Amino acid sequence: MCTLEKSDNFFILTLIGDDHEHRLGLHLIDSLLSVLSQVNTQSINGSSALITVACSKFFCNGVDVLWGQPSACLCLHQMVKSVRSVIAALLSFPIPTIVAVSDHAAASGLVLALGHDYVLMSCERGFLYTSEVDLAMTLSDYFSALVRSKIGGLSAQRDVLLRGMKVKGEKAVRMGIVDLATHDSEESVVEAAIRLGDSLAERKWNGEVYAEIRKSFYSEIYGVLGLVSKTIVASCKL
């Protein structure tokens, strides 16, 4: 499940779960989509930001599939399609989105993190990891497009996808995956995300324009997700 809090300038979405791994099962995905829809409705005029957090051993440890069960492959396919809807919702948001990764983000957990505009991470705990090459699984089309859109440099993309590298905070910054890595406590990642969210919300951007500029910037992933762009001119000031 997840919870939502609203301050003056930003929303905080917190992943919660009994196993503290925040695996993306149908219940969590449905909860995420419901909360994202709620934030989208309340922030249609911009002037806000979304901050996603999860304080436990894992930020998110991928999809919730019982490997070895007869229905595992069918369940995995369903989960991958459902995560696609979450990424499409995040990438269509009318406000800036920030994720505070205070610990491990693996497989679809990394996908969830990359769906945000800004990724902040702890230097002291956790890593980013794409497990598909180790699990002998191919990648979904939107995951590959998201990696190409969000991770700078072919060598960094190769190391994440083809080496299954477990990337910690400082290295993630150097590889162009993470925007900021903090050296202090786990809580400092969330505090840094809140400071960034405040500064972005103060700009009071037009929400529809912000979303459309994002679409044009990440055109490949939007094409894969089937999201349609539109032209908006909210002001004619020169």
Describe the structure.
It is a single chain. With 238 residues, the protein is an alpha/beta fold. It has a single domain (2-225), classed as 2-enoyl-CoA Hydratase, Chain A, domain 1. The protein is 45% helix and 15% strand. The chain has helices spanning 26-42, 72-91, 108-114, 132-135, 141-150, 154-161, 169-174, 186-201, 207-217, 219-225, and strands at residues 2-6, 11-15, 50-53, 58-60, 97-101, 104-106, 118-122, 128-129, 180-182. The strands form 2 sheets. The chain has a 6-stranded mixed sheet with strand order 1-2-3-5-7-9, with helices on both faces. Strands 4-6-8 form a 3-stranded parallel sheet. Strand 1 (2-6) and strand 2 (11-15) form a beta hairpin. The termini are far apart. The model has no long low-confidence stretch (mean pLDDT 87). This is Delta(3)-Delta(2)-enoyl-CoA isomerase. One of its GO terms (molecular function) is delta(3)-delta(2)-enoyl-CoA isomerase activity. It catalyses: a (3Z)-enoyl-CoA = a 4-saturated (2E)-enoyl-CoA; a (3E)-enoyl-CoA = a 4-saturated (2E)-enoyl-CoA.
